[in-house]
Amino acid sequence: MTHTAKTSNGVPGAVLWDLDGTLIDYAPYHWFAWREVMAEAGHQLHPRDFADSFGKRNDTILHGLLGPDVPPDVIQQMSDDKEARYRRYVRERGLEFLPGAEQWLGRLREAGWKQALASSAPPENIDSSFQALDLRRYLDAVVSAEEVGKGKPDPAIFLQAAERVGVAPSRCVVVEDAPAGLEGARRAGMKCVGVLSSHFAELVADLVVPSLEALPARAFDELVGGP
Questions:
Q1: What is the per-residue pLDDT for 179?
Q2: Residue (of 58, 36, 207, 35) closest to 120 by Cα position
Q3: Domain 27-93: which CATH number of 1.20.1260, 1.10.150, 1.10.8, 1.10.3470
């Protein structure tokens, strides 16, 4: 790896990872689940609306699609139904890391970087991913939007993750695939890496790459001001 100047607690810095679309890409599972739930409610889900939902909490997504006056119990029921369908697809079809993801998790771990997951996914979905891919061997902390009570682009999830791993925001790098997450990173005062996908061909970040495989070897060191 590289030789980065270390923080006062002896670590080079921290990398805060998004989950869906960054470490794993199971957008098709989310698409199938959302489409089924919306169809049963009498609504057609368009691909653009689906793409716009990335990085957001389910209640925000549903109010955006159905309007602000839908009762909370209906929103919760539809959200729970959608996530149960998603997890069924995960169980039936499995999960895999995106290209380069597992290699970077391992390299950063070996180099002494702190790593945390900062995901808008419901805790049950995060748990299913952890079980399928044994993510705990790489990560020092996990923070969900449900836990902090605010979804991206609010910076709360990233600030909480930085606090959990004991690294100042200025020495944290967020890795995201969606505009909402990258905006949240900027609001948190953190550097960010945008990973392009079929859903977002353009992103605004300190560094934008077509995939994690294309991430330069010294990318994280240089983003936090390493030598």
A1: 94
A2: 58
A3: 1.10.150
Superfamily of domain covering 14-25+96-223: HAD superfamily/HAD-like (3.40.50.1000)
Global confidence as pTM: 0.81
Q: Is the pLDDT of residue 2 over 50?
A: no
Predicted pLDDT of residue 197: 87
User: What average pLDDT does this structure show over 4-31?
Assistant: 81
Place 109 in a pLDDT band, splitting at 50, 70 and 90: very high
Q: What is the pLDDT of residue 6?
A: 57
Where are the chain's structural domains?
14-25+96-223, 27-93
Q: Token pair 């992103």 is at which residue?
A: 203
Angle at 223 between CA 54 and CA 1, to 5 degrees: 105
Arithmetic mean of pLDDT, 119-133: 89
